[in-house]
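Write out the 3D structure for:
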Amino acid sequence: MDLPTRTTVLVSGAGPVGLALATRLAAGGVDHVVVDQAVAGANTSRAAVVHARTLEVLDTLGLAEPLIDRGVVVPRFAVRDRDETLLAIDFSGLATRFPYTLMAPQDITEELLEADLQRRGSGVLREHTLEKIDVVGDAGVRVLVEGPAGPREITADYVVGADGMHSPVRELAGIGFAGSAYPQSFVLADVELDWPLPRTEVQLFFSPEGLVVVAPLPGGRHRVVATVDEAPEHPGIDDIAGLLASRGPRPAAAVRSLAWSSRFRVHHRLAEHYRRGPVFLAGDAAHVHSPAGGQGMNTGIQDAVDLGSRLSAVLTEGADPSLLDGYERDRRPVARQVVALTDRMTRAATLSGPAARVRNVVLRGLGALPPVRRAAAMNLSELRWPSAL
């Protein structure tokens, strides 16, 4: 696949967000190009939570069922303090075809999206990065792309940055990214362990030392996410076992093997704008936050399909271009609320002493109220914020 000199939409980034956007554009018959700096797609699980609203969105592309077939259906989310359940959220009563959380590793999600994109006659230009953006009025946007064959200039009507937290598109467009980083680092690991709690739950444990999330994965594994003051570069079995022993249920779980691990820093940030002229942002380029609710990739995929639907309507169906103005209006408030919600969850998880006891009493009381449990389920599943398109 060669890099053209002219395209209608240039998408920077071929993670799940960029691939979902490109798939929606391809479904709408929009000429587009996807470039990505990586040599290949994801080969590790990373983002693994797929919520109900995201499955609804993927279903419009015919991709929900194939993903469900390769994931683990999890109908409950539980907030715990060691052995005590403080709040149990059941998704099974939600008004959706997908009343659950699906645990499906990111590499599987990307594999399905890219395969579908190829079936639609499109693909990804790998080892290509955006170096410069010039908005040239009615002529669109001139973009300088650096690739294995050297620099190449392309002209596009629109450019979309789906290129992550350090988005070159956002920086080149001069869009601010307000927020800050959490002081802790995060450990991420996929493990096999002897786990006493049901595989029908995602479990979030509160602890003064930091939160830990445990969730089932395909193949009998579990995903573990935890905050630590300083994570080792390559977290090992003993590191994961120690986190579960100090924060999880008792007796401590035995970690039998480690398939993959990583460490990372987490920010809570929101782009000041999702659009500057013909340049748009989606996914982590527009918003980043704590993984406590597993909503990062979900919010991004929903951004992508919403924006792709708007672009398709304007470019191939004759819709008024003002439809594109609604993208930021509709999607940025969703991200703002997700950033706030996950920040509250992360900070509440690490309370200690009297504050922790008050937190637990409040959560137990709220958890006894069906309207509260339903509101929590709607927020986590993101069904509270259905897309306009």
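The chain has ten helices and 19 strands.
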